[in-house]
Input
Amino acid sequence: MKNLIYLIIAIAFVNLFATIPPSGGYQVGDVVTDFSAKDVSGKMVSTKDFEGAKGFVIVFTCNTCPVAQKYEDRIIQLAEKLNDKDWPLIAINSNDKGMSPGDSFDKMQSRSKSKKYSFPYVYDESQAIVNAFGATKTPHFYVLDANKKVKYIGALDDSADDVSGIKTRYVENAIDAIEKNQDPNPSFTRAVGCGIKKRTT
Amino acid sequence: MPSVKVVLVNLDFESEVEKKVNPFLIKGQYLSLENLRLNGLKADDWMPLVDQDWSGAIPATLILAGGKKKFIEQKFENYNALKAAIQQL
Output
């Protein structure tokens, strides 16, 4: 009889764990904890630096991924557009440099300089930020509101390969929705991207 | 080790098929494997069919064996790691 009780408890716990989504990190609706990292300028950049921001666009990206490279110009253009609107865009490279030498801090600095990035491009060396967010690929976009609540996660738009094929600009639409106090729809999209090179040990 | 069929599904950009994908298949001698190419479908439509929790990071591997499935959303360190993942199923 005792054994039967223990068996039932075990099943109940298994079911409880089964309902917790296996993907960790921030989901839509979660509030992001302030973070900081070293920018290509040499200075530390923090989400706390942007008092009064209407929202944030956080993008996990890197130098080496072909998909991120396709999106680079669009990220640059978006950042320039957002500069006037009090919406900081922060680009984060979380790739381990041992696993991806083309994404070292030096290489980030060269890239930012040669393409004249007008936004912070920070190095998540400890991978604390990518682990907190649960970002899995590059590019991976998170749009936060003024309270740093996650309102959208996913792709910038629906046409990675070909700018002329874009029908929906998910991140821009999310920004417009947030400014109108509405929820972005969709609030989550999937897209192909290069897995972020995370250290397993 | 049971017999294993390997299917490669290419997700590269259409614009890169000629200059990148075909040379890669030839150079790596992958032509004896089943090579598929997926293009033109909306990610939100087809990715959940592979795995509900997949947000799109590649490389990714779906292992199917006797009705069981296992989805690995990262690179295998080496051949032994891949072998172990198959054998564990």
About this structure: The first strand of chain A starts at residue 36 and ends at 39. The interface with chain B takes residues 21-23, 66, 70, 136-137, 140, 154-155, 158, 160-162, 186, 189-196, 198 of chain A (CB under 8 Å). The CA atoms of residues 36 and 97 of chain A lie 19 Å apart. The beta strands of chain A are 36-39, 44-46, 55-60, 89-93, 121-123, 137-138, 140-145, 150-154, 193-195.
